[in-house]
Amino acid sequence: MTVESGTTGISPNLSAVASGTVAANTQRSPMHNAFRGPNGIRAGWRLLIFLVFFVAIAQAFGFVFHHIPAVNTWHHSLPKNEMTAGGMIFDEGFTFLALFFAASLMTLIERRTFADYYLPPNQAFGKRFWQGVPYGFAMLSLLMALIGLFRGFSIEGFALAGNSALKFGLLYAVAFVLVGLFEEFSFRGYMQSTLGSGIGFWPAAIVLSLLFGAIHLQNLNEAPVGAVMAGSFGVLAAFALKRTGNIWFPIGMHAAWDWGETYFYSTPDSGFLAQGHLMNSSFHGAQWLTGGSVGPEGSAFAFLVLVLGGVGIHFLFPAKRQLS
Questions:
Q1: How many CA atoms does the CB half-sphere of 293 hold within 13 Å?
Q2: Which of 13, 37, 168, 170 has the most other CB atoms within 10 Å of its CB?
Q3: Is 300 helix (H, G, I), strand (E, B) or coil?
Q4: Any residues with CB less than 8 A from the CB of 34 and at least 6 apart, and which?
């Protein structure tokens, strides 16, 4: 439907209103312009507000749990240099809950929805998620096969069987879905959406992937090469977001990669081994091949696998839409 008036298509009255709006905008103070732009609160300030909310809520949860004697005692009894399914579910669950509450507050401030943050609730654990799960596991399996081909990885048998294997497999599946939800929704969800609105999709994705890799350096026994691969995985996840339109595929891919690495193949994950892993497996040979204590993401083959993963996503999900 078009509206025509003279040669411009805008009525004189509307032109006057528009001119007045432009004039009003140019008369706003520098302080106002520093905080607000054409789309409301500027992206940097929205990120800062979000982070303040997240840290405050997470600290509040920590304060409450610290003052529940049974929970505090149990949590402090967990090993510091090993993963446990219960500890991961507890920590990642409440960290994601803090993230969810912080993002919920931002939806009220920004008048947006979770779909605007690339996490549409109506697609929760739907088709894209279940496409991502086998994709992530296949990528990790290819990496282990390449390491094994050069005699850097071997399996000596099963560490668990029967009900124990099923129990720990399910518990670690829950744990790593929570990991995928937290890490993907924080870095490729809210922060990607917000920072991308200010500087563009790919500049935001690169910045956040660098940050994602750097944060992994805090993990026990993590090495710079492992952090670089974590950042590279962030770029791959951003590419999957770009092609699929939301982060449900990256969440499934991320969860399955970590589950396969930690539970199924029973190797270190960012420097941590898991209690209750499935296999008796071991690495042999040079660290460049196996990744050593860092885990297979520290292998020289990890980058090749991530590149191949990107090629696969390119063909599976042809470009159809543009994300701002």
A1: 10
A2: 168
A3: coil
A4: 42
Domain boundaries, the chain: 1-38, 42-316
Distance from C-alpha of 26 to C-alpha of 47, rounded to nearest angstrom: 26
Please indicate, yes or no, whether the overall pTM of this predicted structure exceeds 0.85: yes
Q: Is 136 exposed, middle or buried (0-12, 13-18, 19+ CB in 10 A)?
A: buried
Handedness of CA 169, 170, 172, 178 (dihedral sign): positive
Name, in order, each residue with C-beta under 8 angstroms of 320's C-beta and a sequence gap of 6 or more. Answer: none
Question: How many whole angstroms from its chain centre is CA 305?
Answer: 19
Burial label, 98 (beta-carbon count in 10 A; 0-12, 13-18, 19+): buried
Output Rg (C-alpha) for the chain, integer angstroms: 23
| pLDDT tens-digit profile, the chain (324 residues) | 443 444 334 344 444 444 444 444 456 677 667 777 776 789 899 999 999 999 999 999 999 999 999 999 999 999 988 899 999 999 999 999 999 999 999 999 999 999 999 999 999 999 999 999 999 999 999 999 999 999 999 999 999 999 999 999 999 999 999 999 999 999 999 999 999 999 999 999 999 999 999 887 776 666 688 788 889 999 999 999 999 999 999 999 999 999 999 999 999 887 788 999 999 999 999 999 999 888 898 899 999 999 999 999 999 999 875 555
